[in-house]
Design brief:
single chain; about 150 residues; alpha+beta; Thiol Ester Dehydrase, Chain A; six-stranded antiparallel sheet; 6 strands; about 40% strand
Length: about 150
């Protein structure tokens, strides 16, 4: 199963902020089970949406050509203020707070109709991938965006 939440986004001129949108549609398979008769977007997927926006911002600051995998390291102060229902647009804003390459700390928030529904601080890092090992992460990640 592939969840690509990074669909429409813009990195701001400061290179420290990214803003994006993700349409939450009723026909999404996750709503069959979460929850029948009362569909809401799972909090873990809201966090994943914010994390994928962090990755796009991290790539603006990647050093060198070595193969790496952007990895979520830590989630702090996560708050889910309101449920996210189908047939809305999730607005994401992520700001880079601190970076000590290859580690980054971001503040992230998700909003619907200008109301913050979730926020968190996410710590991310580029992890080395040895030659010939593992998944072509960047190919996997961006291939899903081309549909």
């Amino acid at each position: 199963m592939r969840y690509i939440f990074l669909q429409q986004f813009e990195i701001q001129n400061d290179g420290e902020t990214i803003k994006g949108t993700f349409p939450v549609t009723r026909d999404w398979e996750v709503f069959q089970d979460h929850f029948p008769g009362f569909p809401i977007m799972p909090g873990a997927l809201i966090l994943e949406t914010m994390a994928q926006h962090c990755v796009a911002l991290m790539l603006e600051h990647k050093e060198g050509d070595d193969p790496v995998v952007p990895t979520l390291i830590q989630v702090d102060r996560a708050k889910f203020k309101e449920p996210v229902f189908p047939d809305c647009v999730l607005d994401i804003e992520v700001k880079k707070e601190i970076s000590m390459y290859p580690n980054f700390k971001f503040s992230a928030k998700a909003s619907v109709n200008n109301r913050v529904v979730s926020e968190a601080r996410l710590t991310m890092a580029f992890r080395d991938v040895g030659m010939g090992q593992g998944l072509d992460f960047m190919g996997f990640f961006f291939k899903g965006m081309q549909k």
